[in-house]
Amino acid sequence: MRFITVIAVKEIRTYFGSPMAYVVSAAFLAITGFFFVASVSDAFAEASIRGYLAGAVFFMIFMSPALTMRLIAEEQKLGTLELLLTSPIREFEIVIGKFIAAFVMMAIMTGLSLYFVVVLFIYGDPDIGPLLSGFLGLGLYAAATLAVGLFASALSSNQIVGLIVGSGILTALTIIDFVSERLTGLASQVLDGFQLGASFSVFDLDSFGVAQGGHFADFAKGIISVSDIAYYISLTAVFLLLTVLVLEARRWR
Amino acid sequence: MIKVEHMSKSYGPYPAVIDISFEVLRGEIVGFLGPNGAGKTTTMRVITGFTPPTEGVVTVSGYDVVSHSLDVRRHIGYLPETVPLYLDMTVTDYLKYMGEIRGMNSAWVKDRLPLVIDMVKLGEYRNTLVGRLSKGYRQRTGIAQAILHEPDVLILDEPTIGIDPIQVVETRELISDLGREHTLLLSSHILPEVSAICSRVLVINDGRIVADDDPDALSEKLQHAERIEVGVRGAEAPAFISAMREISVVVDARSDQRASIIQRAERENFAPFIVDARPNANAAEQVAKTVIDNGWGLSNLTPLPMTLEEIFLELTTEENLGE
User: Fold this and answer.
1) CB 3.0–4.6 Å: which of A8, A243, B33, B159 could bond A100 by disulfide?
2) Longest CA pairwise span in chain A (Å)
């Protein structure tokens, strides 16, 4: 536990010392701000964060890997991974520490966008339920996407490769419903079960969609279901485990 | 402290180290000498637990590097060949972090850090970003992280590579000092460096240990010949060569055929020769005297140290040497 904290604290300090965190935060706020405003500025608009959530989950496909791409790739590039792996510290402690750091950064970023909620309360009368479930879902969704990004970062010493592979995996999980729509029966259901939650229909400014069959849809509506929670937690766990395995495999080369 | 028994390591089908055995005792400074690609780094990576051996048993302080990897890593300080530094941290922050990663608590780090910074003479750079340090100071920072947690065993991979000559001297002094407190294994491809620092030398070539001896004995074995490059004006080649062969300590003399030398010789108007002589016999002095006595002009006279390649050639082609 101590090593996990040491790693996490170091990574969070590095985030604040580099322009990356500020650039990603600014982009996140600008983009989610746009979707928030677009969704609540109609004459009879609903006082909700639906637009914000749809924008956030969609852009996390790219922002999570952008936040995590440096974490392991750079250790490999600098040669410091050799130092970490010859220190009395286990691979999972490295991975969890770095994951926590990325999650804290994402939480800070999301925290900055909470003023949207304040705006809603000032000018409207939003439902508390969907707000809470929305942010719970967003947290779980962020964890899963960061885990995928961290895994991608472990694959090579090139950060750009990490970004592209990470976003690639997340995009594949997002557009999986294009495939499942064209199938029937069990195959369709199984594929639907993997749908990450975001939807490209986010660009359709009339619907501000998250994927209807996806795991985020219920959170956006104010429904918390065990299967959705289990999906995100499993996805997080599986990719963190894969990251540990990639690091361990490095020893056996 | 370090015991390597019949260790082999292959990367896929490519063997990097083949069946090597050696032991490093407490307090010894052992130099690991070999050309690039001989298996030095691989052996060190196995000892530090970074990569497991394909075959054989390696123990450090009695702990097996595979089954008790964490215990081994607690007892080792390691400086890899590419000095692993976080360029955006200050020297102090970097060392603190490395100490914590090595399991030191903050009180220990606080006590130990000034001592170590002093030892490697990094005092005035303690708050400088690592990325702004010169190569020699980066090397020192790397050494500092390796000794911070007071390890029993110190493993330094090419600690003087790529730094300027003055800093090389300082770094060697530092390493010699460290050798008084630690068991030390360092690798190098420079023979004089290893002779200067180490009490024992392991020579490794093509993944095999070809010699294990103290530096004096080793260089004696290696000094079969002294080679001298001579440039002479006004001498015919046959006359010069026969004059040289008359000197008792000279083994052989011949014209220097290397293109670069011939070009220079033509430009500067001298005839280039190579003279091989018996070692430690003041051959250069006698060659110079003979040239002058014959009324020739001595343009240049350079004793050539044997290159490492030649040494390895000798070690690997001659029998009854080494193991």
Assistant:
1) A8
2) 62
